[in-house]
Specification:
Strand content: 35-45%
Strand order of the largest sheet: 9-11-14-18-15-12
Oligomer: single chain
């Protein structure tokens, strides 16, 4: 099992990490995490990520803990990245709280098991959901023992802001109250932020797939999205649940529901108000009812519900071949539904401020012979007797299949699965699907079950007819984006030559994006590691967050391992940095002094005008803070220490040579500041003498500091 770098981790109970304070720890896979804490408080410039794989949480919870105060203002603090994969839960859950570094990413992938009663899988209700924080829960299957309130996949705080996002993708939940719960008062989703529930299946969800517990405002170019999801629950269960007498206001933002077939469900349980700068888009949605008033700008395409006319008075219904706009303002939608993103919305598809996993996600059931599968990458582990294929499907070992267009045969040569675009007949033959763009037609060649892009057909029609294409916005035969592992070359999706490449548009031999734990080299291949450092030719195999060799003319910065030009210098007022690092100065600009550790160029300290003064008070050249030997400070001046004339005295008071402050050994100080032999003091007098000595020392110190 692999080991990866992580931040400081505090373990309670089972050993989970070799912890190193404020440096890099080593996470150990396959351990019990209940009662443990991943602590962002120890995050530093050398800590890039923490990963847990195949761990368990039993009868407790695991905490990803932030800092008690904001970390977002630190210019040198790197974004945190915590990934928890293949997590097994048994009466357990996860907590995220406090302040995390800006642009941090928390990923929960392939979690499974039973969650603590009344708790969410991921309790993020006390985290500061801001400053680019991105939380992704994907491809997970969880359940609760019995149905009750408070049981959601993710519980969030009431305020999600400043380009932050929550993506719940490919999650199945049983006996949940909701997929996402935002129960706190005065809910605000704003500042180019996103909450999205895609490819979700919920058994129960009495509160809705997304539940708002109070008045809600979706504002400032933000988005709420529900797609490819379904609820198995009571009649009238809403997709969007709203507390009684509460309104959801959409202001300069987007509310979108698409590709949802829920004939027993309602759209919403409370009023939704959409302003003129926003859009509520409903595409390929089948419902029992809308359920409540949705006022304002609403566009619809292939919408089915009994009460549309009563609940959506201003609906703009598009024909099945038309375009229902789905761009977050201020981005614009062209005639082919593509988003023209603004500077603050760099990512395509719906136009978001952060990378949207939905854009490249293709849901795919496990192939024949597969025991564990992962969305578009299909199978990750085959059953006994099967072996993994290049396309991530499973084939029987030692099978000689003679059936044309068959991808998987039995040991006897009988076809079990046909290639994409073909359907298996009762006689075991593979015949072409009669629906253009259809991938799977198992019962009838003219009835499509799954389209080539992985989506379910709408009215037995597939949006894309190009094999392995996931997006055909302008026409069914014109592809704009291929599935992972394929590149778009002359409107054809061709498999990338590198098996670890997930995108190679334009040239199948030049990878532009690699799979997790791999990075793109300057030669366009995928190398092991998660290094994505700009201008880096070779990353450090032991630490992919640091470059080992940069492309010319860039050099490796020994401070943080990044690639910088020789002229780059991060020390203010530095004329030339030390070779090999941007954080230490060799020579400051004229008029500045170099600090002893070479990390700063300081304004020169003005000379001190006080005679016999070693150092003046900062900012005041006329008042002394420390005098030379033989002098003491008095009202900012340096006065000579007087000779001591008290018998048996080791140190007189600074301002009075006739009064002792410290006697020699064997003598005690009297109240008259003289020294008497300890032999003539009885045992009861000694404590008083100590108090006198203390008082004298305090008086002497007060005189010195005056």
């Amino acid at each position: 099992m692999r080991h990866v770098s992580c931040g400081r981790v505090v373990a309670a109970g089972a050993l989970m990490c070799i912890a190193v304070f404020a440096t890099v720890g080593v996470c150990v896979d396959s351990v019990e995490l209940a009662g443990s804490v991943f602590d962002f408080a120890g995050w530093n410039a050398n800590s890039e990520q923490g990963t847990y794989s195949s761990c368990t949480v039993t009868n407790g919870f695991f905490t990803i803990r932030g800092n008690p105060s904001s970390l977002s203002e630190s210019p040198t603090l790197p974004a945190g990245a915590v990934s928890i994969t293949e997590l097994q839960l048994s009466n357990g859950y996860i907590v995220i709280n406090q302040f995390l570094p800006a642009n941090s990413i928390i990923t929960i992938d392939h979690a499974s098991g039973r969650i603590t009663a009344g708790m969410p899988l991921l309790d993020a209700s006390t985290v500061d959901f801001a400053n680019g924080l991105k939380i992704v829960v994907s491809d997970s299957t969880v359940e609760w023992a019995t149905a009750q309130s408070g049981q959601s996949v993710v519980s969030t705080p009431s305020n999600i802001r400043t380009s932050s996002a929550l993506f719940v993708l490919g999650v199945t939940a049983t006996r949940a109250a909701s997929m996402v719960a935002i129960p706190n008062p005065e809910i605000r989703l704003g500042g180019t932020s996103v909450v999205a529930v895609d490819y979700a299946t919920c058994t129960g969800c009495t509160d809705g797939l997304v539940y708002f517990g109070a008045a809600t405002q979706i504002w400032e170019s933000s988005m709420l999205r529900i797609s490819h999801s379904r609820i198995s629950g009571a009649v009238g269960t809403p997709l969007i649940g709203v507390a009684p007498a509460v309104t959801v206001s959409v202001t300069s933002s987007l509310l979108i529901v698409e590709n949802v077939s829920a004939p027993q469900s309602n759209l919403v349980s409370g009023t939704v108000s959409v302003d003129s700068l926003s859009t509520a888009t409903l595409r390929a949605v089948t419902l029992a009812n809308i359920g409540a008033q949705v006022t304002g700008k609403v566009t619809a395409q292939l919408l089915t519900a009994a009460d549309i006319a009563q609940q959506i008075p201003s609906i703009d219904e598009k024909p099945s071949s038309g375009c229902a706009a789905a761009c977050v303002p201020p981005a614009a939608a062209g005639g082919d539904c593509k988003c023209v993103c603004g500077a603050n919305m760099p990512h395509m598809n719906f136009c978001t401020a952060m990378a949207d996993p939905y854009a490249s996600y293709v849901f795919k059931d496990c192939s024949s012979g597969c025991s564990t599968c992962k969305n578009e990458t299909a199978c990750s582990q085959c059953r006994a007797g099967f072996q993994i294929q290049q396309d991530m499907t499973c084939a029987l070992i030692g099978t000689d299949c003679k059936v044309q267009n068959c991808s998987n045969c039995s040991p006897q040569g009988v076809c079990l699965t046909c290639e994409d675009g073909f359907g298996l007949t009762a006689a075991g033959a593979c015949v072409p699907c009669g629906v253009p763009g259809c991938k799977n037609c198992p019962v009838d060649a003219n009835i499509c079950k799954t389209c080539l892009n992985g989506a379910a057909p709408v009215d037995n029609t597939c949006a894309c007819t190009v094999p392995h294409c996931v997006s055909c916005p302008s026409s069914a035969g014109t592809c704009s984006a291929c599935a992972e592992g394929y590149g778009l070359v002359n409107n054809v999706c061709e498999r990338c030559s590198d098996p670890n490449c997930i995108r190679c548009d334009g040239n199948v031999n030049k990878c532009t994006d690699c799979a997790a734990t791999y990075y793109v080299t300057p030669q366009g291949t995928c190398a092991q590691g998660s290094c994505k450092i700009p201008h880096c030719e070779l990353c450090d195999p032991a630490n992919p967050s640091r470059c080992q060799r940069c492309t010319s003319p860039y050099l490796v910065d020994s401070y943080d391992g990044l690639c910088r030009l020789a002229t780059d210098c991060a020390v203010p007022q530095c004329k030339q940095c030390v070779a090999g690092t941007s954080r230490k100065c060799e020579k400051c600009n004229d008029g500045y002094d170099l600090s002893s550790d070479r990390t700063a160029c300081n304004t020169p300290t003005p000379p001190c005008d006080v005679q016999h003064c070693q150092k003046c008070v900062d900012g005041d050249r006329t008042r002394c803070a420390y005098c030379n030997t033989g002098y003491y400070v008095s009202q900012g001046r340096c006065l000579p220490v007087q000779a001591c004339y008290v018998a048996n005295c080791a140190q007189c008071m600074l301002s009075d040579s006739a009064k002792c402050s410290t006697c020699m050994n064997g003598y005690l100080l009297t109240s008259s500041y003289h020294c008497v032999s300890q032999r003539i003091i009885n045992g009861a007098a000694a404590p008083r003498a100590l108090w006198v000595a203390a008082a004298v020392l305090l008086a002497s110190a007060a005189t010195y500091l005056a």
